[in-house]
Write a structure and sequence with these properties.
The protein is of the alpha/beta class. It has helices at 3-8, 30-43, 54-58, 77-85, 98-111, 123-129, 160-169, 183-194, 220-227; strands at residues 67-71, 90-94, 116-119, 136-142, 170-180, 199-201, 233-239. The chain has a single domain (3-9, 35-239), classed as Vaccinia Virus protein VP39 (Rossmann fold, 3-Layer(aba) Sandwich), CATH 3.40.50.150. It contains 9 helices and 7 strands, in the order H-H-H-E-H-E-H-E-H-E-H-E-H-E-H-E.
Length: 242
């Protein structure tokens, strides 16, 4: 998959709406471009307004496995570590920034990850158009853009309409796991998640937050923040069983 092909993944027309991300400039390294060229055809799924079954995402011959969708994997470090530690799960990572896609593909090759696929497109449209209803066992949203200025709060990903969409794609008993290092956003997410009918808070801490689940690794970025005195908040909610 060449660079122009990669760029076309973002070119599908869709109605205008407030988005939770911006296409930031960033240099894609030679190694990342090579990974996109050589591994992209197998591991990158182009956006298409057609619902794909979990088997279609990962190959028709694949035995069905728990299906986890990650939104905004950044440079893919945590994604690769989780996929490597949980080979019994399928992971679909969604990221719009090309350097991150290339970086994760390099880790796919390094760790020989066969249980991971990537889509480089707006996660809301992917959920709306490509993910079957009640097919996801879990959703990971780690360190989304906090849009810390008050006038930008409307751009935050975790809002009631988005959670309604997520809930429609979760299996009964499926989970949503969010993490942030912005306390204001953590409180916002907690309030919105707690108000959503059909979701049950799994938090063990007094404020309603969760202890960090063992499967979520601590990233270098997070370690630097903790050393600077920044907090990190995990939130885990499950959809109600039928």
């Amino acid at each position: 998959m060449n660079t122009s092909s990669m760029n076309k993944l973002h070119d599908v027309e869709h109605p205008k709406r407030i988005k939770s991300f911006v296409m930031r400039a960033g240099r894609t390294t030679t190694g990342q471009l090579k990974a996109i060229e050589t591994l992209g055809p197998k591991f990158i799924v182009p956006f298409s307004p057609r619902v794909l079954s979990p088997q279609e995402w990962f190959g028709e011959s694949q035995t069905p496995k728990p299906f986890i969708f990650e939104i905004g994997f950044g440079m893919g470090d945590a994604t690769a570590k989780i996929a490597h530690a949980m080979p019994e799960h399928h992971f679909l990572g969604c990221e719009v920034h090309q350097p991150g896609v290339g970086a994760l593909l390099m880790k796919v090759e390094e760790l020989d990850l066969q249980n991971l696929r990537i889509i480089s497109h707006d996660a809301v449209e992917v959920l709306e158009k490509m993910i079957p209803e009640h097919s996801l066992d879990g959703v990971h949203i780690f360190f989304p853009d906090p849009w810390h200025k008050s006038r930008h709060h409307k751009r935050r990903l975790i809002q009631t309409p988005f959670l309604m969409l997520l809930l429609s794609r979760l299996k009964p008993g499926g989970y949503i796991h969010c993490a942030t290092d912005w306390e204001n956003y953590a409180q916002h997410m907690l309030d919105v998640l707690k108000a959503m009918p059909g979701l049950i808070n799994q938090g063990q801490l007094a404020q309603g937050y969760s202890t960090r689940p063992s499967y979520r690794p601590i990233t270098k970025f997070e370690t630097r923040g903790v050393k600077l005195g920044h907090g990190v908040w995990d939130l885990v909610f499950r959809s109600k069983e039928n």
